[in-house]
Amino acid sequence: MMSLPLTCSIPGTVIQYKIEIHNHILGHLPHFLNPFGYTFAIIADDMTGALYGENVKKALLNQGLEVYLFTFPHGEENKTRVTKEYIENQLLEKNLGRDTCILALGGGVVTDLAGYIAATYCRGVPLVMLPTTLLGMVDASIGGKTGINVPQGKNLLGCIYQPKLVLMDLSTLSTLPSNEIRNGIVEMIKHGAIADASYFNFLENHSDQILALEPSLLRKAIYDSCLIKKSIVEQDEKENGKRHLLNFGHTIGHALEHLTHYEISHGEAVAIGILVESYLAVLNGYLKQASFDKIWQILKQYALPLQLPIPFSAETLYDAMILDKKSLNGKPRFVMLQEIGSPFKEACISVEDETLRKAVEWMNHDLCRH
To answer: What is the DSSP string of 18-69?
Structure first.
């Protein structure tokens, strides 16, 4: 059970937690969970519940622990207030109190929802992240962001609530379909684009091996991506400045997810968002065409679809972005790159309406099936 440990420490607080990368450890969780008491609530979607939830529950029960498994229908469309209330009601019916530790077992939808429940249930209970998808490992489980979707947009309700521990079991990745692997790779590419050109180049040079889940290269890719994410979080936990960089591609991407009613996956939407926001940087004179082409090429290397089901007007997209958390004075703002690995000096900026219109026209022409 070899691990490459990282520690996320939030300055000015006592918050500190380990991020551990292992193989085949879901059956050995009691060893890791000793500090968190005797009562555990596993929250998973119906798919991860069937794949891993029952086995995790059994392993903990065999150690004499009190364990419950709660599941909900999978999919981004179920990350809602209704689902949150449904799980909370089940926790209350079992008379679970503040001595309960929540185990978030699954991908980004599960970690977002379970994290928000942990933050608010009994005014906060311990949380352990057990991500089983690549996106969950390199992004959603680290940094404390939790949230649910509402009809007006994605992740508009939530809070920042740090876990006590993040445990990754790389063996779970072998069960994922290829599109789920690509969803996570988009976040890894994003990390290289905003913070580390050498890491971006590593992903570029080893795309075939990473897509094939070659163990040593995959472990390094995940470790380096987590290192970038946790380093940014440590500098700006509450997203007052630098942490906005982690939203590169997400202003456009979240709007596209919402407008397509989650017909396209998070990774596919963010990949398109990365391209459109990079194109905005080109139009504003920040990013060179050659760098833009390199970003487009790496997304193609990893076989991202880069196709919207239908076109959207600039006005429709603009309206969907107004409630984005980076918006200021009713105007959406975007992360701008100057070079790969080097963002513009401002964490995010607004653009002229005409510039946005040109970028949306380009998107509809080059990245739309119709």
So the answer is: EEEEESS-GGGHHHHHGGG-SEEEEEEEHHHIIIIIHHHHHHHHTTT-EEEE
